[in-house]
Amino acid sequence: MLEIATTKKEKLSRHLRNCLNNDLPGLLSHKEMAPLNREMEFDHSSSARESAVLIALYPHNFLWHLCFIRRPEYDGIHSGQISLPGGGREHYDSNITATAIREANEEVNINPEKIEILGSLSPIYIPPSNYIVTPVVSILEEQPDFIPQPDEVAEIIEIPIQDFNKPGIVQNKTFYGGTFREIKAPCFKINNTIIWGATAMILNEFFNVLKKINNKKEFYQ
Question: What is the pTM of this model?
């Protein structure tokens, strides 16, 4: 993924859009970063609420970055977790992409007019909250003027994509879910930021798509 860091927006947009419109790694990518006890929980539920998250690529200091949020501490299953900006679809959202754009604007102040949508990754079901999440992939010309929505976002975390390519980033740890049950799962650990669960599974598919781009000779021309 290191080559992605210096790639111009137009070239990255074109190749990433093409990859997203072809076969996606989906379940295989998700399983690589799934909690060990989640094997039987991959079936999508027809009663699940639709939701979306926005993967927003943007340049900063000559490197492509991703934006994450840390949820506030509260009495709930996702308390304090690292996630991508996003949330549930509302009746006034025209489609699931509109949900991702609206939520990113509300939570971290990404301007909808600056977002170029490239496509979507495979939907993923979140059993604890009964959400079916569609990751929407986008790209921006410049770093957004981030402003966290206090009720939804405790911290905005910006990470260069190339940091996910460093040795030792993927680790296995024990986490605590609802009712404090232990959950053993792989995670991405970057400095003091630990990304696990559905967000890690989504990211793993995204990175596998980026690897497909890196394997294309025409990408470097």
Answer: 0.91
